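TICKET #2291
ISSUE: user wants both folds in one file
ATTACHMENT 1:
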Amino acid sequence: MSSFIGHSFAGLTVYLTTTELDVNRQERLSIRSNLPWLIWLLTIASIPDIDYLIPALILQPDRHRIRTTHSLIGVLIFPLITILILWLSGQRGKTFKLRSLQAILAGLSHLILDLSTGVFPLPLLYPNLEVFRLPFGILPSAGKIQLTNYLFYRNLSIELGVLIPLSISLLLAIRDMTLFGKHKFFIAAGLLVSACFMIWASTLSR
């Protein structure tokens, strides 16, 4: 599984890229100052791992552990509740559409990152108990969180080595839609760095 830091960073990336893409500069500055909303998106992106704290959410009908929170239903529960609350609170128009999209993408980002590790099979279609796992991994799994655990620091470094350059390249690519392609070199460099870390992650034992 991907780390809490990785999931939070994915939520941040969803927030920044969708904000950059969907609103004008004045609205962008207003939304970026809304720290509680950003924190909630980071929570949505990470909350499926709550099953570590509530083991009852993990089923064990056979040799596979069925992590019910790591399904399409599991990762979309909080985004859908969020959208309902936004609607009932009177939000409409551009802001409502943007925040709804951000909530859904933040939830889905959890599945994308965990699938990308290629480690644990996930019940994507729960309550159907069939599990899915990629035959390869481009992200490392999260190491056990211990100050003396070398693997934790190594895997976290690789994960951030994949995600940070990739996110920066994505942001720059979106900005280049209006800046006439001024960041092409930096976009390519970020993608190359990210790809190198993906290759490193793919060589790790699983």
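ATTACHMENT 2:
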Amino acid sequence: MMDLERAAAFCRSYGEAMATGGAGRLVDHYGFPYVSFTLGHVSRMEDRADADAAVQAHLDRFERSGLGVDIRMAEHRVEPVSGGSALCHIRWEIHPQNGAPGWSWDNVYGLRQTPDAQYFEFNVSDNEFGELLGRYPDFMSV
């Protein structure tokens, strides 16, 4: 049976990792292989090293673009799918360091929960990149 309180605490922990800590703390929340779906593009991270490199590259792009990484979880919702899985809807807000107005988006993360562990298996980031590329069309090339 899905422990919703435990799942919600895991989502909050992921938000704290984004707020305080870099790629490693975010990747601590992933199971492997981890898959990211974004606007029809699929990225598969086979292990921790793959994920560390991919997440760090993404965060570095935010820094190089002038946006910075003041990205905070605004809210979350856990929708059980089965006794051991759920969809976690997380709303993120960015507060750009370049003075541009901030915005928010919703990503969905697939949570796997066992008695001994829980981790995200995948994410769907269409909203994140749709909002980001709508404002900064060259973001991926910075």
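RESOLUTION: both attachments delivered.
EXTRA DETAIL ON ATTACHMENT 2: The chain has a mean pLDDT of 97.
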